[in-house]
Amino acid sequence: MAKSTAKTTAKTTRTPVRKKTEARAQPAESPARHSALDIAQLALEKKALDVVVLDVRGLASYAEYIVVMSAESEPQLNAIADNIETKMKERGERPYSIEGTRAGQWILMDFGDVVAHLFYKDTRDFYDIEGLWADAERTLVQ
What we know:
By secondary structure, this protein is of the alpha+beta class.
């Protein structure tokens, strides 16, 4: 038997590699992000403190964004919650659930893809929602 000594070379084509410095296309702002930023602004109308929007897409199964804020008193906490609820309803977005309005330390407002947490400062520090979502992208809203 004779061995074939002919070499075969396959021609391969390469696809160009994108340079790291090239910008990736950014998706349009999602309705959920828009709602989260609206909630943050509505909270600021009533002087909420340390308002942060957490992007938990891919990290949480129950929401895309979490809005966290603080208040200095129970009346302020309730005023913030009332303002958010009223103005979001005017825009056609009703909360699925609101919890904690009677307790006065922590109010949770569930808008589906956006969940808002309104806290007294000490309660916020104790539960450390931001620490639970340390991997989330944060947007400080002022």
